[in-house]
Write a structure and sequence with these properties.
By secondary structure, the protein is mostly helical. The protein is 48% helix and 0% strand. The chain contains 6 helices and no strands.
Length: 140
């Protein structure tokens, strides 16, 4: 990868992809994603516990600083949910870069029958932790 496109984890931590105010809601996850997640978790697609899988499968790339900022600008409410969806708090570039990953996870999810099997497929596919998905961003 050319040097001008490489970024270190430290550089990535200096650029927050979390917005101060939510953007209007748009569909980021196709119904098929939600349905397949429900199928392999054996939980209803709107079940609050599915949120842990969204964090693991989609949002795990966030730095601790970004998670802290998200908790300030869009805190968890007493019912365990947030007022706004997490993707409403992401800048547009991040959403665009995340979209192919969501599609890839959906493709793997379609082949899995359990969360454990999906985790193995993701590990086999990427072989890296999710924050590395964002290495190579030109942050300059």
């Amino acid at each position: 990868m050319p040097e001008q496109y490489q970024s270190s984890r430290k550089q990535r931590q200096e650029v927050s992809r979390i917005l101060e105010t939510p953007q209007p809601w748009t569909r980021v996850f196709e119904a098929e994603f939600e349905e397949n997640l429900a199928r392999i978790t054996k939980l209803h697609k709107k079940h609050i516990r599915n949120g842990i899988y969204y964090w693991e499968l989609v949002y795990n790339w966030m730095t601790p600083e970004e998670r802290a900022k998200l908790d300030v600008v869009n805190p968890v409410l007493p019912n365990g949910r947030r007022r706004h969806k997490i993707h409403q708090m992401l800048d547009e570039t991040t959403k665009q870069r995340l979209s192919p990953h969501v599609t890839s996870v959906l493709t793997l999810m379609q082949s899995a029958n359990t969360i454990a099997e999906l985790r193995r497929l993701i590990q086999r596919r990427y072989g890296v932790d999710q924050p590395n998905l964002f290495d190579g961003w030109n942050l300059g």
